[in-house]
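Comment thread on ticket #2218

A.B. wrote:
> Attaching the input chain for the structure job we discussed in standup.
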Amino acid sequence: MKISLVISTYNQPVALEKVFGGVRLQTRLPDEILISDDGSDNFTRDLIKKFSANSLAPVKHIWHSHDGFRKTVILNKTVVAAAGDYMIFTDGDCVPHPKFVADHAALAEKGFWVQGRRCFVQEKFAPEFDAKKIPAFGWMLAGKISGAAKGIRWPIPLIRRDTRQRGIIGCNMAFWRDDLIAVNGFDEDYAGWGVGEDSDIGTRLYHLGRRRKFVYGRAITFHLNHPSAPRGHHAASLERLAQTIAGGKIRCENGLNRHL
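C.D. wrote:
> Ran it. Output below, let me know if you need it in another format.
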């Protein structure tokens, strides 16, 4: 099984550098690393070049010019560019645990997609976060991390197989690439930050017959908190998602087909 690790980003080079620090520590390297870039400037481009020069896994920088929040578009372009059989998706503000990729590899199972969890590093403490130290318990006691139980790698993971909507988040998901192609990838009709697009693809995979493995205690990420972006599209996105849920939709109209 060839694994593609996808890291989505837009103009967050400080956080992205910490994410790269976590990637360097992986006990199981991905077979390729794809940076899915929604139009970042040269600071991010230079950082990726520096990381690529010293990476033990090949790195691809997938970029398009910025024209508002178009994460679904750049993710679809990234899926097209990927060479892996299995794709792990995370964000450029989520530092992976050293066993993040190894855990996802162990969780991969035909007929399922995987949803991992994240804990939250409080914004004012994010500059202190060091990928070489996994501080969940101590930082929890100090009030620097919320949801710290999601940042601890338990001796035995809790895995629930389901088709629920609760807990679908795009910063820690993994799919078989063939399943992404079957549902036509991410729905590019979703525009704007933070609502709907992740739940939509999860829902369409449910309709395809792919249940979710909802995992606690494995495949952990540490989200570096930051100010939220505006969500003016919120109502329209939720309505689109409701239609996908109610209609049993499997394939979106505007997805991978625009780029294959």
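A.B. wrote:
> Thanks. Noting for the ticket: The chain has a mean pLDDT of 94.
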